[in-house]
Amino acid sequence: MNPPEFNTNVITELLSWIEDNLEQPLLLDDVARKAGYSKWHLQRTFKNITGLALGGYIRSRRLCRAAIALRLTRQPILNIAIQYQFDSQQTFTRRFKAHFNITPAAYRRSPYWDASALQPPLDLHMTSLPVPHMMDLPAFSLYGNTYHYACPLEHVSSVHAQIRKRFWIDFLKKLTPTPSLCYALTHYEAGDREHEPVDISYTITTESPAADHLTHIEIPPGRYACFHFDGSVEEYRDFALKIYMYVLPNLKLLRRDGHDIERFRVEQGDFNEAVTQLSCDYLVPVLDQYSPGDKDGC
C-alpha cells in the first residue's frame, strides 16, 4: 500500500495534468494510465484525497472554463461546447444548466457575474485565502491614463502581469513628484478577434489632476469586496485569480458591473525592474449579499 504522502503527490501531479488537458478528450482509462493506477483505484484515491468524484471534477472544471469563456469572449456557444469536449450544443446546454441553474445564453447576458457555482482548480497545498471586508464607496474622481491591449483568454493572467509594469513605468515617469497613492482600474471586454478574444483596458490614476495630460474619470458609488495584499510581486500575480476562482465562489458573491480597483501605496522607484514587494488593496464591485464583519477594513 502506498503511503498517504505518495498518493497526495500523485494526485497533485494529476490535477496539474488535468488542468492542462481540459480541452482534450479525457477518458477515465486515459487518466488512470497517466496516474499509473487502475481506474478503480484512482477513482477511490482521488475521492479520498479531494472529496470529489474524478469524472465529476473534470466535468465541473470544463464547465467552469466554459462559463468564463461565455463571460469574457464572443465565441459562439457551439464553439465553446466543442472546445471543452461536449458532443453537441444541446448536451452542453443541458449540462451547463444542471450545474449553474441557468442556460449558457442567459449566463452570458446576465448583468452580473454569479461565481457561486464555479469549480476552482483543486490545490492540495493551498493553506489560506484572502478575506474581504465589505465597503460602500461614494462617487469619487480620479485622474489618469488608459492603456489598451488584447490577448487570448488563457493568457490573461500572465500577460496582464507582464505588460502592466511597462504601463506603470510610463505613467510614473511623467509625474513629479511621485504620488504616494495610485489607483489602477481594470476592465475586461469580449473582443472580436478569433485569436485575441479578450480586450483589456488598464487605467492608472491618481486622486488629483497632477498633470495636464491626465484624463478625469468618475467612479460611481457602489459596494465593493476589499482585499488587502502585502507580499511579493510573484505572489500578487495570482492574487486576483484566487479572489475570482476561490473566494467569490466560496462566499457566493455576485460581481456587478464596474472596474476592479487596485489601490497602491507607491514609493519612488516602485514598478521598476527592481521592485519585489507590493502593498495594495484590491476592490471587486459586488452586490450586497455578504457582510463579513467590519465594513471599513480597507
List strands and helices in order, with pairings.
Blueprint: H1 4-20, H2 28-35, H3 39-50, H4 54-72, H5 77-83, H6 89-100, H7 104-109, E1 113-114, E2 133-137, E3 140-151, H8 156-172, E4 181-190, E5 198-206, E6 215-219, E7 222-232, H9 233-236, H10 239-251, E8 254-255, E9 260-265, E10 277-285
Antiparallel strand pairs: 1-8, 2-7, 3-5, 3-6, 4-5, 4-9, 7-10, 9-10
Helix pairs in contact: 5-6
Supply the CATH superfamily name of the largest domain.
Regulatory factor, effector binding domain
Number of domains: 2
How would you characterize the largest beta sheet? 8 strands, antiparallel
Helicity, in percent?
A: 25-40%
Number of DSSP E strands: 10
Distance between the termini: 50 Å
Residue fraction in strands: 15-25%
Radius of gyration, rounded? 21 Å
Number of helices: 10
Low-confidence stretches: none
Protein name: AraC family transcriptional regulator
Keywords: DNA-binding, Transcription, Transcription regulation
Domain HTH araC/xylS-type: 12-110
GO molecular function, one term: sequence-specific DNA binding
Molecular structure report:
This protein is α+β, with helices and mostly antiparallel strands and 298 residues long. The protein has 10 helices and 10 strands. It has helices at 4-20, 28-35, 39-50, 54-72, 77-83, 89-100, 104-109, 156-172, 233-236, 239-251; strands at 113-114, 133-137, 140-151, 181-190, 198-206, 215-219, 222-232, 254-255, 260-265, 277-285. It has an 8-stranded antiparallel beta sheet with strand order 2-7-10-9-4-5-3-6. The chain has a two-stranded antiparallel ribbon with strand order 1-8. Helix 5 crosses helix 6. The longest helix is centred in the N-terminal third of the chain and has 19 residues, at 54-72. The model has no long low-confidence stretch (mean pLDDT 87).
